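Quick one: C-alpha cells for this chain, please?
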Amino acid sequence: MDGDVQPGHLGDDFLTAATRWAAQAPQLTARYIDSIHSILTEYKRQVTQMGGVADLGTSAAGTGSGEEVLELNVSGAVVPAARSTLCAAKGSLLATLFSGRFDRALVRDGSGRVLLAVYPAAFTELCNQLQAHRWDPNFHVRLPEGKQDDMAYKYWFDTLLHNPPTARRNQSARAASTGSAGVSEANDMLAMAEKIQEGMADELARLEGIKPMLKSGNPLADQLMSVDVLGSTVTVTKAAAWSLPGGALSIFYSRFEHNDVSGCPIGAARPIDAIRRAADLVVRAFQQRRPITDTHVLQSKGDVSHWVFQWALDVFGLDGTRLMRREGGMLTNEHLRGINEVRHTWASLDGWRWVDFLTCVRDAAPLVIMMKAKDSGHLFVTIITAPVEVTGPHTSIHSTSSFSFHSPPQPPSTGPPIQPLARSSTLMLAGSAEMERWTDLTQPPSPLPCLIAAANIQIGIAAPGQSASDATLTNCQAFADSSGPSAHDWTYWGRAGVEVPGDGVFRPVPVSAPVGFQFSLDELEVYSGSAGIWDMEHCMEADRASRQAGQAAGGDAASNGGGMMPEGQGGGDLSGGSHAPRDERPSNAPAHYTHEECDLMKKLKVHAQLDRIEPPMREQEHQRVDLPRSYIRRMED
C-alpha cells in the first residue's frame, strides 16, 4: 500500500542530486551530459510553471529550518506541524509539497496559514505517525485499525504518502567491475545517468500529484469559503464549492457563501464531523474529477451515525436520502431499485435506542418495520400508516391503522409462507419519561413495559423501572387473536391459548424456545415510501369503487386459492393460486380485514408472495436474509 512508509533514507532532493552528479562527471561523453542537462532544464521549467522555485539555494522559500513549525489550515481546523515531520516520508507527495520548493505556490488563508483541503482527523493521525517515524525509522506509517474502508482516511493516507515506485530500479545496471578501473567507472556513470532519467519520471509524477493542492492560477477559484458549525469551521476553495452541478447556484455553494448550516439535529453526536466528512466528499470528487455516487457516500460515512450523516448531506443539497441507501440489510439495493422506498434506520448501525429510532423516522410515513428474531430467523413486518410521533412525557395513543405479518423460518407444509398476524386502529407509543404498562402473555398477568404497541406486536420490552429514553428496541413479543375466523392459521404452532382477563383469548407466536413468543431481535430496519401515494382516503375511495363494480358484476370472485392479496406484477398470491381482479378484495382474505385495509396493504407493497426459499446467507458478523425482490415492490394502480 502506498500508505506504508518503510524505514530508510531514499536519497537527496532530485534536482540537487542530479546537478551535483553532472558537475562530477566531466569524463562522460557530451551526449550524456547534454541529455542530463535537458532533463534538469525540463524539470526546472515545470517547477517554475507551477509557481515553485527551481533553485532552493537562492530562494527565501528554502531557507526555513527543518524544525520550523508551520501553522496549517486543514479544511478549517488549525493544525501546527513541524516541516521536518511533514517531510519525514522521503519521496512522498507530502514531503514534496512542503520541501520548501513550493511554499510560494501554496494556497493561504487571511492569516497566512497554508490551506490543506484534507479531512482534518486523517491529517492529524498522519502527522502523529510521521512524528513517530522520525523518532524510530523502523516505525511503519499506515492506516489506523478499522479505517481500511473509511475513504476519508484511506484516500488521504494513500495520496499524501504516495511515492512513485523507486524500489523497482534495476540494480543490475550497476555491473560489477570485470575489467579495468576505467571500464568500471564508465559503467557506474552510465548506471547513474539511467537512474537520473528514471528519477525524472518519478519527479514528474510527484509534480502531477501535488497540482490539486497548489494555487490553480485563477485567483477567484483559489479564494476560501467557510461555514461555522457549533463553534468549529469548515473551509473549502471556491473552485471546490462550485464544482457540483449548478455551480454557484448549487446548495453546497450557497451554504458556504452565506455561512449558513442551520437545522442541526438536537442530540446529534458529532455533527461537525458529519459536516466535515460531507465537505471532504465533495473536495475529493473535485480533485479526482468524478461524480459523487452512493458507493462514495457509504465509504465516507465512517463511524458517524447514519441519520446524522444523511442530515449533513441534505444540508449541502447532496440528496442524502437517495445516496444513503445501504447494502447488506434484509432488503438490499437490488430490492429497492426502481421504487421510492427509503431505508430510514438500520438498528445494528444506527443504534437500538428509542431516541435513535424516533429521530430517524421523524415525519416519515407510512413506515414498514422489518424485524428478524435472533436465533430462529423468524421474520415480522409491522406497517404503521402515519408518522410515529411522541407528543409528551407520557404514553400517547394515536388513532392510527397498523398491520402486521410474520413468516416462520420453516414454513408449514401446507398454507402460505407469509401469514397475516393482526390489524389495529390504534398505535401506542412510550412517552419520553415513562412507558405504557402491558401484560406479559408468557407468564401469569404482570406489568410489562414496551415502547411501541402496534397490531399485536410489542417492540422494545424493557426492564421494570427503566425509562423510555434509556430503553432499546431489542426485545419484543407477538401474539395472534385466536378467536377470529383465521384461528385455524395458528393450529400448526401446537400451543394452547393464553387467556388475558379483559382482553379475550390470544394464541402466542413462538419464535424461539424456551422463551416462547418473547424474543430478541437480530436486526430491525425501517422503510418508508412517498407519503402522497399512501393516502388512506385514496385507498378507501378506490376500494368503494371496486366493490360497487363487483356488485354490478354479480358478486365477488370466490375462486382464488389461499392467500390474502391479489397478485401484483411479476409475483403470485400467497399460495400460487389464481389471480384476483386488481381492485377487488380476495375472497380468501381474513374476514377481519376490510376492503380498504387490504387495498392499503397492497399499496404499502407488503406483497402476498414472499417465496420463502432459503436465500444465500451473507458471511458477515450479523448474517442477514436476502429476501426475494417480490417481497416489497411498488404496486401499480
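The chain has three domains: 14-213, 224-323, 364-531.
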